[in-house]
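Work Package 4 report. The design task specified in the project plan requires that, given a folded chain encoded as structure tokens, an amino acid be chosen for each position. We show below one input record used in the internal validation round.
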């Protein structure tokens, strides 16, 4: 085990408050800028990249889904009415994930959300994004007996299918192919099992095993896919998995294989009783992983970026060779911790008030790294933000427009609203604009369009039932949004 002193002298990446920038120099001399995209999130659980370059963020405390446009404008596009809140200091919190697909190639996005419920169910839903708001929700899957706070993930794969990690924790048996628990599933955008799944049964396509990609997992916290153009391991999946008392694993997922939970734990160099071996183990508790395949930050090319929820874990870098083996390990170390991390492979994130822990990581095609970071207070409350890591020698700095704080652009009230909602823009628009109120199903329930130059509007809201709504201001090119309560 590493001492506290060793951890504290590892490279520390200090990220400053919103819209500030910190410059990090890596071991090979590459300079990386870290810029805050959003810093007013209660508990960011996922950061996902859309085909148009927008960054989508989920907040596991509020249930809000945010979209950061490539130009920096951030708007709230929907809300999932989460029944379970972050209120007990749980390191992982609840699951709340999102992935975005251009399913029909027309720019109207299919959005898949996955979240856990207070009664330990895992729900996967599908909706449509039309440029303003999520609408037309439907339920794809509803899986029982899934721990609400541990070990789930959803990953968009290159073939427009989804890899779904279903946690088992320690019960029920993750090797039982009659159950979905403790498995990595692969589904299509209609919630069905693809016919090329490794155990697909055409005579029984709805059996649990038809959905299974791999099994014997305690709870895969995150999965990432190797780019398909990598000759040896292209298209394969890596996953990170917290252990029960240590021996957290980094696995190259073997299709149709039993990864051995409840039968074996720790590092091995050959299969143990037919159970697949991890590629590395670590003492730090992993929360997220992304494969980095870009020369934009050359020191990280062909590596796994592993976020951890351990207070002194931070971001770990695991070097991967062409066969999918992790290079920076020492098999002679204790089996629960063979991954070697030094000042070039470990980075801590520190705010003005404490240590932040990576909760989600995404890598764009041009080599930018997006991370959701969470800080835990002593009273169990959380605060979070999303940052982007860029190489200024390669990347044009990403625009940051903190338009989520719409107090600089508009005001509205009362909130909670009663019979009338008054909206005022702080600057006269040069084009006509529309104020709409949407319900949680994405349906407009109040609407008025105003002429260019006008700055105020009153909407009738007496007919609204009690609940949560979304106010959206749209001038045809830009949207602003804010939550509303009746």
């Amino acid at each position: 085990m590493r001492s506290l002193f060793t951890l504290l002298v590892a490279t520390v990446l200090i990220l400053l408050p919103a819209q500030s920038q910190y410059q990090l120099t890596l071991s090979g001399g590459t300079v990386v800028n870290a810029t805050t995209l959003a810093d007013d999130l209660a508990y960011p659980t996922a950061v996902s990249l859309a085909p148009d370059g927008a960054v989508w963020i989920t907040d596991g405390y509020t249930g809000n889904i945010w979209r950061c446009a490539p130009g920096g404008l951030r708007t709230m596009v929907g809300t999932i009415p989460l029944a379970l809140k972050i209120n007990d200091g749980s390191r992982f919190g609840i699951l709340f994930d999102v992935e975005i697909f251009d399913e029909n190639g027309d720019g109207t996005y299919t959005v898949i959300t996955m979240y856990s419920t207070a009664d330990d169910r895992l729900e996967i839903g599908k909706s449509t994004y039309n440029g303003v708001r999520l609408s037309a929700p439907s339920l794809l899957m509803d899986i029982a007996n899934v721990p609400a706070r541990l070990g789930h993930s959803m990953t968009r794969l290159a073939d427009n299918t989804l890899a779904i990690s279903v946690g088992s924790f320690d019960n029920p048996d993750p090797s039982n192919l009659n159950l979905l628990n403790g498995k990595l599933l692969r589904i299509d955008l209609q919630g069905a099992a693809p016919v090329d799944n490794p155990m697909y049964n055409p005579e029984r396509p709805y059996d649990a095993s038809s959905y299974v990609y791999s099994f014997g997992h305690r709870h895969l916290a995150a999965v990432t896919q190797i780019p398909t153009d990598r000759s040896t391991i292209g298209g394969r999946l890596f996953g990170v998995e917290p252990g029960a008392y240590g021996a957290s694993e980094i696995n190259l997922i073997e299709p149709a294989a039993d990864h051995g939970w409840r039968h074996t734990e720790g590092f091995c160099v050959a299969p143990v009783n037919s159970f697949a071996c991890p590629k590395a183990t670590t003492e730090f508790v992993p929360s997220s992983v992304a494969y980095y395949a870009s020369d934009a930050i050359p020191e990280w090319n062909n590596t796994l970026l592993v976020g951890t929820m351990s207070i002194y874990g931070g971001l770990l870098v695991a070097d991967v060779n062409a066969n999918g083996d992790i290079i920076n390990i020492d098999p002679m170390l204790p089996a629960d911790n063979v991954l070697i991390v030094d000042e070039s492979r470990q980075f801590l994130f520190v705010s003005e008030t404490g240590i932040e822990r990576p909760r989600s990581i995404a890598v764009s095609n041009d080599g930018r790294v997006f991370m959701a970071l969470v800080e835990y207070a002593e009273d169990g409350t959380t605060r979070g933000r999303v940052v982007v890591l860029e190489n200024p020698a390669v990347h044009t700095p990403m625009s940051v427009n903190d338009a989520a704080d719409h107090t600089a652009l508009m005001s509205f009230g009362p909130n909670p609203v009663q019979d009338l909602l008054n909206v005022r823009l702080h600057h006269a628009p040069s084009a006509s604009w529309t104020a709409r109120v949407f319900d949680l199903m994405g349906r407009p329930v109040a609407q008025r369009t105003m002429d260019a130059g006008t700055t105020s509007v009153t909407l009738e809201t007496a007919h609204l039932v009690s609940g949560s709504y979304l106010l959206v201001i749209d001038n045809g090119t830009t949207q602003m949004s804010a939550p509303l309560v009746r």
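The longest helix spans residues 4-8. Validation will be extended to a larger panel in the next phase.
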